[in-house]
Amino acid sequence: MSDADTPLVLIVDDEPAQVALLSYNLKAAGFRIATAKDGEEAVLAVAELGPDVVLLDWMLPRLSGLEACRQIRATREGREASIIMVSARSEEGDRVRGLDTGADDYIIKPYSVAELIARVRANLRRLRPTSTGQVLEFNDIRLEPDSYRVTRGSESLHLGPTEFRLLAAFMERPGKVWTREALLDRVWGRDIYIDTRTVDVHVGRLRKTLCAAGGEDPIRTVRGAGYSLAG
Asked: pTM here?
């Protein structure tokens, strides 16, 4: 699994011991980790790194977790992430406030690390199902991430690693219009600098393979925007 395929969790907490504990356990569970120590740093980190999951503590210096959540949700990268609010506030009103602000989940302190990791995985199953081994199906196309197998109808398709990751991204979000920049981040990773025209080349290869045995092209070109999977 490449770095681009390994889910990235951003831990936002101003307590070093808590950050160290969560980092150790999440790394052991197979995640990449990034950290931020306050709300302002969290907003910048989301824009820069595009994490899959944000563990966001409510009580933070400089900018509260609640306000950080609002600002994160206003960014393209933040709208793509799953935010889990972490707080000692256990009243129903606080939970509702956190979720209404934009959090996808809310976990109350104290919590077990095992439960928190289970919540991270549950959110990832909704956000990036292939990262947890979930089989995807779209019309007559079936993608099995664990066995690295793709079929269309009764035909097995042989995809290169890049085309496989492209198809996985499309199938995780049918109908979503992916810009070339977003596909570069999702498939190649943010640390690799590649011309956006490279995306067009690999999408062309993917289309050719998907249509080799007949059938309509399921990938739609959205003029001036990017690509979308639309049957």
From this structure: 0.73
